[in-house]
Amino acid sequence: MTGRVLIVDDEPNIRRTLEMIHRNAGWEAASAEGGSAALRLLDAGAFDIVYLDLAMPERDGIDVLADIKTAHPDQIVVILTGQASLERAVEAIKLGAFDFLEKDCGKERILLTSKNALGFRTLARENQLLKRGARSRREFLGKSAAVLEIIKQVARVAPTNARVLILGESGTGKELIAESIHDRSKRADRPFIKVNCAAIPEELIESELFGSVKGAFTGSVQSREGKFQAAHGGTLFLDEIGDMSLKVQTKVLRALQEGEIEKVGSNEVTRVDVRVIAATNKDLPAEVSEGRFREDLYFRINVVPIYSPPLRGRKEDIVLLARAFLGEYCSENGMPAKDLDDEVIDLLVRYPWPGNVRELRNQIERMVIMSSGLDIHAHDVSAEIRSGVPKTVRSEEKVSPETSDPSPFAVNGKTLGDARREFERKLILETLTSHNWNVSRAAAELGLERTNLHKKMKALNISRNS
Fold first, then answer.
1. Whether residues 317 and 284 fall in one domain
2. Per-residue confidence (pLDDT) for residue 211, from 0 to 100
3. What is the CATH number for 380?
4. Domain span at residue 67?
5. Would you say residue 63 lies in a domain?
6. DSSP reduced 3-state for 407
7. Using an 8 Å Cβ cutoff, are 39 and 81 in contact?
8. Is there a contact between 198 and 382 (Cβ–Cβ < 8 Å)?
9. Which residues contact 315 (CB under 8 A, 6 or more apart)?
10. Does a structural domain hold residue 216?
11. CATH code of 220's domain
12. Which pLDDT does position 434 carry in this prediction?
């Protein structure tokens, strides 16, 4: 495995020696006597490795390294140094140099370093390709006007540090939007940390977010880092922030205002640099008016709101998404490519998708696994999709007037909302009973995530003694 190498040194003998060593091993080699000439060569063509002398009369090697890393951030640079310059070589490593060599280290060490550097560069490029592939698989797909507007909003807000509040029903792709913002931001190479505020018990979410010290509470046997610290320099995605307790909201507000956190059980202040993106399926202004959500926190997180529409409101995207999921699951399961026949497409478009994109994804995965041919037919589709009637009643939690289901009319003193709650409560109770109160199995039959079923049980006051 060989490549192209550039030697930058003011000593002609050093340049000739390193060029000869590499050329005899099959490498392409060029040289420059100083930093200015080296930068011109790098601008004119790509080199896999640069060997850079630290002690040059024209310009200091540290300054040249800084210029190279500014103009070509991914460029691999190996420092050449004399014995007296080892401390400065270590300084160069901290500035991004790959390695350093003493000038009299010998031919074998030089070629081994070049081989290792080239291998590292190859792995780095493969990693970039994998990241691009992963990002392409988690794109917010669609051709509808609503999706095109979201793509525009993401492009505008991503390069900034502005906080974003993503609104939409469960399963509409709010997390995908958050990931897309992070991937296009200046923090893309830093952590993207996700926290589902609804899935963590109230007594644990504070330590989950801010960390805790040993002995802070029962069962705390060691100090642990919280999500804010884990996301330092990157992005923290607070999903279902509307379910966060008022006590934790207060601490989150301080973290956003001051950029400071305190671990549970400690008074020590830790500085954090975190961009917060939040999401919810709740009507936060209504939550504020009811005293369940802090108004000052709402204004802090709602700098740029983005609305993720339900799938039933963008039917032109259903087939596009279905085919994308189809290709993904065929590849994932080592199956030949499959397609949807016209009848299946018609069924998918007519179905209301109360579980939104998440439900569509799950149904397509089922079809891929259960179908035997290269085409998916109507008999491969679940009875629920064929009937066009979902098993569950869609949640009342709405996030915009355009998608809300107001209940202004009452029959015998009962509103539509009351009737829906009664039906939902009865259905959940019957399903839980039929599965001997196994919540996971009941959630699967109802088409819900386990955490969402727990939320509904709490909201509808359902327990085993109900």
1. no
2. 87
3. 1.10.8.60
4. 4-134
5. yes
6. coil
7. no
8. no
9. 349
10. yes
11. 3.40.50.300
12. 78
